[in-house]
Amino acid sequence: MKITKFEDLQIWQLSLKITKDVYDLTAKPLFMKDFVLKDQLRRAIVSISSNIVEGFEKNNNNEFIRFLKIAKGSLGEVRSQLYIALAVQYISQDEFDAANLQLLDLANQVGAFIIYLQTKRKNGEFVTR
Questions:
Q1: Which of 22, 52, 71, 89 is the most exposed place for a label (fewest CB within 10 A)?
Q2: CA–CA separation, 116 vs 118, rounded Å?
């Protein structure tokens, strides 16, 4: 299946779902009072889907790989911030575990997609629309 628009990317779809879940977590009363952590976490989670889209829209494998790597970095940032939220008891262990599992799954999918694109590039094939 040839992907012609970013909305067809499974990694983008999953990032959107996780973004909604993180927004729900950060809307909890205790979390809402911590403007710095809440805002930083929301910026980092939004960065994931934004970088997936920005890389895709460049229509260039090298650029797409670069932006996917940035998105993967933001995934790590979100995971770290959720550890902080857990430590200060803004979220429960169950909430953390559910979110962290989704983030790890997405990180693995993004990583696999990066490897796929790199392999195509090495073989002289370019994945473009």
A1: 89
A2: 5
* Cβ pair 64, 114 in contact under 8 A: no
pLDDT digits (tens, 9 = 90+) for 63-96: 999 999 999 999 999 999 999 999 999 999 999 9
pTM: 0.91
Residue 88 DSSP one-character state: T
Residues 6+ apart with CB under 8 A from 65: 55, 114, 117, 118, 121
Break the chain down into helix, strand, coil percent, rounded to 5: 80, 0, 20
Q: For residue 52, which phi and psi values (nearest 5 degrees)?
A: -60, -45
Q: What digits encode the pLDDT tens for the residues 23-46?
A: 999 999 999 999 999 999 999 999
Structural domains of the chain ordered from first start: 6-122 (1.20.1440.60)
